[in-house]
Design brief:
The protein is α+β, with helices and mostly antiparallel strands and 456 residues long. It contains 7 helices and 26 strands.
Length: 456
Amino acid sequence: LRSRRQSKPGLKETWPTSWMISGVFVYNHKGDCLISRIYRDDITRSVVDAFRASVIHSRHNVRSPVVNIGRASYFHLKRGNMWLVAVTRLNANAALVFEFLNKIIALMQAYFGQFTDLNVKNNFALIYELLDEILDYGYPQSTDPDALKLFITQQGLNTSASREEQTKITSQVTGQIGWRRDGIKYRKHELYLDVMESVSLLMSPQGTPLSAHVAGSIRMKCYLSGMPECKLGINDKIVTKGGAPAPAAGKKGKKKGERRAPIEIDDLTFHQCVKLGKFDMDRSISFIPPDGEYELMKYRTTQDVKLPFRVTPLVQESGNRIDITINIKGEFDSNLLGQKVEIRVPVPTTTSKVSVRADRGKSKYKPGENAVIWKMKRFAGGRTAQLTAELELLSTADKKKWTRSPISVKFEVPFSASGLEVKYLKILEKKLGYDDATVTKWVRYISNSGSYEIRY
């Protein structure tokens, strides 16, 4: 979570008290407290036993991620068989606390891989050093792994750096550009941009979408020297008002050089490198990129979602026999090729025999899952395919009607389901004297399935 209000480093007295965290603890599945770090004197070690008894060893399943025990609030995350807990006695901002806990897990994974019992025990000294650095008297500080790795290594603190290097480290951690170190050099300047989208759909039995949305992100791999300034433009509706209506998903007819129609984005979340003031002014995304791979922005849209596949089921029931026919059509450009297409068709639990035929791909009945699975490695746009399944049911005294679970679809298609398009990506490095004309740039669009379900 990133606030539009920027706080100046060092002015801790101006921070809200709702940001305070009194302690951070790590437990394993047995309830053993592996890491215990208390930052404020308003809690004692007794909070360790209270959480173990009330949550980990509780006879009841604790579903709430926030538990109030006594006068303290416990914010906890469970990853595998590990628990990460933050404790406070104040009315803390829950969203900020959980974002910070997720950052701690990501930080530990960046240092020693998986967040497991053994890894925590083998790196407990490193974890304590990180906790001392990322929290100052309960106030969250920088959690950027690239910045922290400059002076906190898995061999301990980096004390062998020269005075000049120490000055650079201090400037990076406390300065305005803490996400990128100075002096980066590459022989070849390259920038890779991936527009990754997850398409979710719930279709009614009549073929009308009940809900559809796209959750997307723009990820970048940056291999640029120096401190380049980048400017990214997308076809946001506020930027390009009065555009023509959006064409069908990936359909032909778009003239060369013609831009896609503007889209309406509901939610936007940026990386800390983005200058929010410029975005508010002209809706351009200006930033100095971190080195390597990172997520520039996340977005969500519910308007004019381009559905990549249309699935039409047909069911006929006759006594102890059910005939199911599934038709699927690729609703995208014929030049594109969908991959990893998988359709899961639930069947009754009383199914005794299944005969499946598909004119494309492979299909199989899995009794353990009570479903017919239909897989296709590749699926060209504009093409159709059909699956036919003949079911024989067991004769039972209970004539309970079959509750039809939705058909689920998985896929990967190289196009933007939301209609988002990268209009331009400009790069300028004044000190080293290169611009976007000398940078190799790649843009890729990929839409994956989220919860893509069809009722029938």
